[in-house]
Design goal:
Shape: globular
CATH class: Alpha Beta
Strand content: 35-45%
Number of helices: 3
Number of strands: 10
Number of domains: 1
Radius of gyration: 15 Å
Mean pLDDT: 95
Low-confidence stretches: none
Order of helices and strands: HEHEEEEEEEEHE
CATH topology: Dna Ligase, domain 1
Helix content: 25-40%
Length: about 130
């Protein structure tokens, strides 16, 4: 029996789209994927997130951001994995590239960035880091 990491698959779609210099991509909708995409938009890593509903399900359409041919996102890495979940208290959340990147956490307050988690003094599962 194989285990699928849906968050890892979502992050891989984004990583591959940037490396192939795609303008947009379509992924399956889930609340977690939508929350992560919304944070990426708020932080300026992607241009737009649109929901679409079709006969075979709901999808998210992501529009990617480039400036002078250079992608806004350098790298995105899955941190906590299905086989090894990683949880941090608010004061123990690791900084990404000395504050140049962000981390995305799943907390009791929802899916938020590391800056918001520190500000609200809430810890949780560190989903991914990006810069």
């Amino acid at each position: 029996m194989s285990v699928h990491d849906k968050i890892g698959d979502f992050l891989t779609v984004i990583r591959n789209a940037y490396s192939a210099e795609k303008e947009e991509s379509v992924v399956r909708h889930s609340k977690l994927n939508h929350s992560i995409a919304k944070i990426l938009k708020e932080e300026g890593y992607i241009n737009a997130v649109e929901e679409s509903s079709e006969k075979n399900g709901k999808f998210l359409k992501l529009s990617y951001k480039y400036k002078n041919g250079v992608s806004a996102l350098t790298d995105i890495q899955r941190y906590s994995k299905p086989g090894c979940r990683r949880y941090f208290k608010s004061d123990e959340i690791p900084s990404v590239l000395g504050g140049l990147g962000i981390s995305i956490l799943s907390t009791s307050k929802g899916v938020i960035s590391d800056k918001d988690a520190r500000k609200n003094k809430v810890g949780g599962e560190l989903i991914c880091t990006l810069w």
